[in-house]
Design brief:
L,D-transpeptidase catalytic domain-like
Length: 226
């Protein structure tokens, strides 16, 4: 009787301490019982790591709002030095004061003289929203208000119907309107997006850069988008 009691205690202690079996364990469920019955090795317990940042411990996908709230912050909010404003060699037959937007390489050039230009880093349209053509600047605005176009509101119905100009406005400090289109060259409240394909077709610049460009070009300046 005492021997059976001691065996039972040993079995219970060993079972409590035995690692849990993974999904590939045998038919006996793994752990101490399978070890005793088969003479095999006990399967190791998977380490109980904390959930990674943004993980949700549920059996269903999180809502869009939850995903947004749990999304990790950008790895960096620094703009690459290559997108800093600088004067560069730029052989072209375009006249002084012309703007050339090099969409694939994320640069805007302002022709300043024969073979010379000011080069600015820009953000451009994401896939499906890039475009090319010739426009001219038809209007300029300081700290412009923003009214999302109807097609954007269809995609993002939670957007405000209008936002007054200011530091939180997505158009940033200045806007230069292109022709009669809905596109603009404008500043941004997200400067870390410069050098990326992020917009709905507008050309984004850092606020300091768009102010510099705004002060240099008049209404009527030609703009070529490549």
């Amino acid at each position: 009787m005492k021997a059976r009691f001691l065996v039972g205690v040993a079995f219970g202690v060993a079972y409590c301490l035995a690692p849990l079996a993974p999904a590939h364990a045998g038919n006996l469920g793994g752990g101490f019982l399978e070890f005793v019955m088969t003479g095999g090795q006990m399967a190791p317990r998977a380490p109980a790591y904390a959930a990674p940042y943004g993980a949700v411990r549920t059996n269903h996908a999180p809502s869009h709002d939850m995903q947004a709230s749990l999304a990790p912050p950008p790895m960096s909010r620094e703009v690459s030095p290559e997108f800093a404003r600088r004067e560069v060699d730029y052989p072209t037959g375009r006249k002084v004061g012309s703007i050339v937007i090099d969409t694939p390489n994320h640069f805007l050039y302002l022709v300043t003289g024969p073979g010379r230009a000011l080069r600015y880093g820009i953000g451009v349209g994401r896939p499906g929203f890039t475009w090319a053509g010739h426009k001219s600047i038809t209007r300029k605005a300081e700290w412009p208000g923003w009214t999302p176009p109807s097609d954007m509101l269809k995609r993002l119905p939670d957007l405000p119907r209008h936002m007054d100009g200011g530091p939180e406005n997505p158009l940033g400090a200045r806007a230069l309107y292109l022709g009669s289109s809905m596109y603009r060259i404008h500043g941004t409240n997200q400067p870390w997006t410069i050098g990326q394909n992020v917009s709905s077709g507008c050309i984004r610049m850092m606020n300091d850069d768009v102010i510099d460009l705004y002060n240099r070009v008049p209404v009527g300046a030609p703009v070529d988008v490549l």
